[in-house]
């Protein structure tokens, strides 16, 4: 859990009556991101929000019944996640893209590649994380029909590489990855991010 788990405290507050459920602590091994909600957040922002803000917006609100003001109808709750200071940020974490369909269109895959940050500041997603806690995208597991492939950045050759059952295919830079995903309709399912060493600037990575 020290490698992958983000240790957080979650609080939820009713947006109508401000009733708060008791907070609880848990280890988040991945962050589920529903594609439709991700896209809607982007559209509402007019394309101006930072990738971290869009990710945070996908889970900062949820609908549920409030035991104080609305026991029959669902109301909005604000959800806050705070990093436990004694634990520190993990070396890696994962985004799990939740698709509505098993065969996404090239257009939808293009939207995901546009929204998916190559680097991100964890402090903009989780409270109490130190500013400048930077992570970079290192590997993706993608769905292709009934099969899975892996696309990962290989520092030894300084480019992205596709791995499947039969062969290894160099893809070049990120533009080559986007082109491959859209043309092949490869759906990113699990995206792994690793912490950037403090001595290495994000732009020096890709």
UniProtKB/TrEMBL annotation:
Keyword Hydrolase: yes
Keyword Hydrolase assigned: yes
Spans through the membrane: none
InterPro entries: Papain-like_cys_pep_sf, Ubiquitin_hydrolase_53/54
UniProt superkingdom: Eukaryota
Keyword terms, alphabetized: Hydrolase, Ubl conjugation pathway
GO MF annotations, alphabetized: hydrolase activity
UniProt name for this protein: USP domain-containing protein
Species this chain originates from: Hemiselmis andersenii (Cryptophyte alga)
